Protein: Protein FAR1-RELATED SEQUENCE 5
Amino acid sequence: MTNRDDSRDLKPGESETVEEPYVGMEFESEDEARDFYVEYARKLGFVVRMMQKRRSGIDGRTLARRLGCNKQGFSPNVSDLGTEKQQRSRSSSAREGCKATILVKMEKSGKWVVTRFVKQHNHSLLLNSSPCDSLADKDEKIKELTEEVECQGRLCDVYRDKLVSFMNNVEQYTEELSFKVHEIVEN
Structure:
């Protein structure tokens, strides 16, 4: 892909041109493809989430990468998160089931090619995604992402507690089984 210098100063009323990805678009590297999509997202007013990565089983090289809108998917619904505050926090999650995504794969030539592109978002985009965003907008985005990180942290705590409980049950049953086997051998 040819690099353009989009860093020129925009005059009042002039808008930035947004080059849209398309199936078949080529890049020299995974990083170039990622940087392109991140810049595209910035211009349109959404944030990119690094999603799936497929690696070679032989040498560990990345063969494909999927990137998408940070509002992709839904936060898991865990009924025992606890307090009302935690429930409120979970309901304000940034995930809204957005389908906007791009898939790039490395071809045999070594080039990275867009093999799938979904443009549509199911939520509004930030209309003014320029470096001149208001501090209030940035603060709101930081607050939203912080809440999601906290929610995911609580979710990890719940999963950790369930795993520890499961492991304790396995340990208890193993001891009981070992005792019963020992009794059988003794008799």
